[in-house]
Design a protein that fits this description.
- Helices cover 68% and strands 0% of the residues.
- The protein contains 14 helices and no strands.
- It starts with 8 loop residues before the first helix and ends with a helix.
- The relative contact order is 0.06.
- The chain is mainly alpha-helical and 257 residues long.
């Protein structure tokens, strides 16, 4: 039985109100929101409610308050607490709050790798890639057969490679960074290969593989083909293909045309 089927209509209406649907919200939009919460057996009410949460959340703090209000309706659900921690904005001073919530989730379920990987990705996205590499090492030690462990490892390594290299033109990159950058990038590529060996039907993972290749080549285009075959609407795949077809990445104007 889905979680959606276990929540009463009254509670669903309350969840919708908490997420910001007011009297001024058009009836059609309100009804669509309620129906998505009630009818979709593949997602929890919170998951659907989160889709609505940015309607009237003007600030990250207001958005977080809305998430907490929804989670309070289903206080016994660890999955909801983890989802709220994951959805907590990481902008500015909210990053520390997000880290705190994810650490709490890890302590609550130390045998669940997901919260550890989310924390790792959060660190990698916010300038703490070396810390992310350490965390993914722990994930790999505990869950080596989980493709997501390898993906997080590669993602952390790729972010660390760019943090160490910097965003300067190659001629302005320090010699030590010039030596280390390809080593880290290649390690990220190997981690992506390990992840793909365990889960090859994930379009976003193929896009990450494109990122680790980082230049126009037959291998890059094969990864691109796999990404759009699995998800023809993967905008990121198209953007990366256009970018890496530029001459500075081994492509040419002819290829772009």
């Amino acid at each position: 039985t889905s979680r959606a089927a276990l929540v009463s209509p009254a509670q669903l209406h309350k969840l919708v109100r908490l997420m910001g649907l007011t009297r001024e919200t058009p009836n059609e939009q309100r009804n669509e929101a309620i129906n998505s919460l009630w009818m979709d057996g593949n997602h929890s009410p919170l998951s659907a409610a989160l889709q609505l949460s940015t309607l009237e959340a003007a600030t990250p703090q207001e958005y977080l308050a809305k998430l907490d209000a929804v989670a309070a309706e289903l206080p016994q659900d660890y999955g909801i607490r983890l989802l709220v921690a994951r959805q907590t904005p990481a902008a500015g001073d909210m990053l520390e709050e997000k880290k705190k919530r994810l650490i709490q989730a890890i302590l609550e379920r130390p045998h669940d790798p997901i919260s550890l990987m989310i924390l790792s990705d959060t660190l990698a996205d916010n300038g703490y890639a070396l810390g992310a590499v350490v965390l993914t090492g722990r994930a790999l030690a505990g869950w080596p057969e989980n493709y997501r462990s390898w993906w997080s490892e590669g993602y952390a390594l790729m972010n660390f490679a760019w943090e160490y290299r910097g965003r300067n033109s190659w001629e302005d990159v320090p010699e030590s960074a010039k030596r280390l950058f390809p080593v880290l990038k290649n390690a990220a590529g190997r981690a992506a290969d390990m992840a793909l060996s365990k889960q090859h039907d994930n379009s976003a993972l193929w896009v990450f593989k494109m990122m680790t290749i980082g230049h126009y080549s037959e291998e890059f285009m094969q990864a691109y083909s796999n990404a759009i075959r699995l998800n023809p609407m993967n905008r990121r795949a198209y953007e990366m293909a256009l970018n890496y077809s530029l001459p500075q990445w081994g492509g040419s104007r002819k290829i772009q045309d």
